[in-house]
Amino acid sequence: MQTCNMVLRRGKTDFWGSGPEGRHAGGFSFHALTANPPEEEVRRHSHDEAHFVLVLAGGYMSSALGAPMVSETPVMIYNPPGTTHQDRFHGGRGRFLAVSGGTGREAAALCLRDPYAYRLAHHLAQ
Question: How would you classify the pairing of strands 75-79 and 95-100?
């Protein structure tokens, strides 16, 4: 059996990054993280729950609808539950806030490039 086409299942708080212990409130988890793996080590994966990635620093590469090849801040990516993706930081360097929660089936992953998303990310990360 070939493993290169298999999709890795990630848990609610499993992201390719490191940082302090996250916070949990109202069925959501919040994690301020620093990207740590080289971009080529990030495998195709999906999460059981919906999540937002609020990019705080670095170039983010996402397959989300409307995302450029490499996004610079401000950018916020939304992935509905079960979305298969290989989103990662260009060069493996960046900082982000991951907000996970919700099991509704929204239509598609989205990329939001808006100054409000950037300010919100910084406030939530603090």
Answer: unpaired
Structure token digits, residue 122:
């910084």
- This prediction has a pTM of 0.74
Give the residue among 98, 122, 91, 78 at the shortest CA–CA distance from 32: 98
- Calpha distance 93→105 (Å, rounded): 31
DSSP 23: E
- Asked if residues 51 and 103 have their Cβ atoms less than 8 Å apart, the reply is no
Task: Look at residues 8, 32, 31, 35 and name the one whose alpha carbon lies nearest to residue 91.
Answer: 35
Of 56, 91, 87, 84, the residue nearest 72 (C-alpha):
56
pLDDT digits (tens, 9 = 90+) for 19-34: 777 887 777 888 888 9
Report which of 76, 77, 94 is spatially closest to residue 16, judged by C-alpha positions: 94
Residue 112: strand pairing partners: 76
